Amino acid sequence: MPHSIGVVLLLFLESTFIFTVLALLFHQRKNIGKSPFIMVFSAFNVFTFLIMGADIQAHVYAGMYFSVPEVIMFSPLLAIYLLTYIEEGTLSAQRLIYGLLAICGISVYIAEMVYLQCSWSNFSISAGLTGPTLELLLNSAKSSMLAAVIPVLFSIFSLPIIYSGLREINISSFFASMIALVSVQLLITVPHWMIELGSGMTPEWFSGGQIVQLAMNIWLGSLLGLFLKLTESEGKRPHHERPLDIFFAFFGSYRRS
């Protein structure tokens, strides 16, 4: 059990580090520009997709394990996306959505090209065992990226909608950010329960990974709320955001600047 606690604490520390680095770069965007933030944010996304292909699992104790990239990497990136929406409004969040889609598409294309190069009989880019290993990793990463498109799109659309809805009923940004992150996780999890119930199976209501991810979202929501308080961000948004603005922005009918 002490070893398990150490594993969880280390993973929470890694996630906190990712969130802190991106939040600091975002906060200093007026002094150093937005390029460092965008480049680091993009690099973390590519790395997340890559280690998703490696299927790295953290084993806490008997019967409790979870995917490291989904919990440790993806959760802080979602929190930073929500921070961008809160601080800069719908149009900046819209641009991040386009950027994420571009990253996913280009990464899949490059992964497919290198994967084909690894399997060509007359073309070798490495020697020994590294070639087949890279081929296996890229093929798995490509599949993981394609499988993650729908959950990622659902998450990045749901977060602003839930957060803005909570703010409209006068819930503070501290609790609104926390509730929004937790709600997105639950909205993704509930359909799996419904499918299992519909097929006659007894769903595992909260697996070990879901419990850890729930705790991670609560922790990151608290960090985000604290960051907003410390930087006095509340009340300084460029304009009032309606819950469905992000939806209209993505499909091109949103023209405010």
In a nutshell, what does this entry contain?
This protein has 257 residues and is mainly alpha-helical. Helix content is 76%, strand content 4%.
If you had to describe this structure to a student in words, what would you say it looks like?
The chain is mainly α and 257 residues long. 76% of the residues lie in helices and 4% in strands. It has 9 helices and 2 strands; from the N terminus they run H-H-H-E-E-H-H-H-H-H-H. It has helices at residues 2-27, 29-32, 35-54, 68-88, 90-119, 130-168, 173-198, 208-230, 245-250, and strands spanning 57-61, 64-67. Strands 1-2 form a two-stranded antiparallel sheet. A hairpin with a 2-residue loop joins strand 1 and strand 2. Helix 1 runs antiparallel to helix 3, helix 1 (2-27) runs parallel beside helix 8 (208-230) and helix 4 runs parallel beside helix 8.
Which features characterize this protein?
257 residues, mainly alpha, two-stranded antiparallel ribbon, 9 helices, 2 strands, 4% strand
How many β-strand runs?
A: 2
Which structural class do you get from the secondary structure elements?
A: mainly alpha
C-alpha end-to-end distance: 53 Å
The sequence of SSEs as H and E is HHHEEHHHHHH
Mean pLDDT: 76
Q: What's the layout of helices and strands?
A:
Layout: H1 2-27, H2 29-32, H3 35-54, E1 57-61, E2 64-67, H4 68-88, H5 90-119, H6 130-168, H7 173-198, H8 208-230, H9 245-250
Antiparallel strand pairs: 1-2
Helix pairs in contact: 1-3, 1-4, 1-8, 3-4, 3-5, 3-6, 4-5, 4-6, 4-8, 5-6, 6-7, 7-8
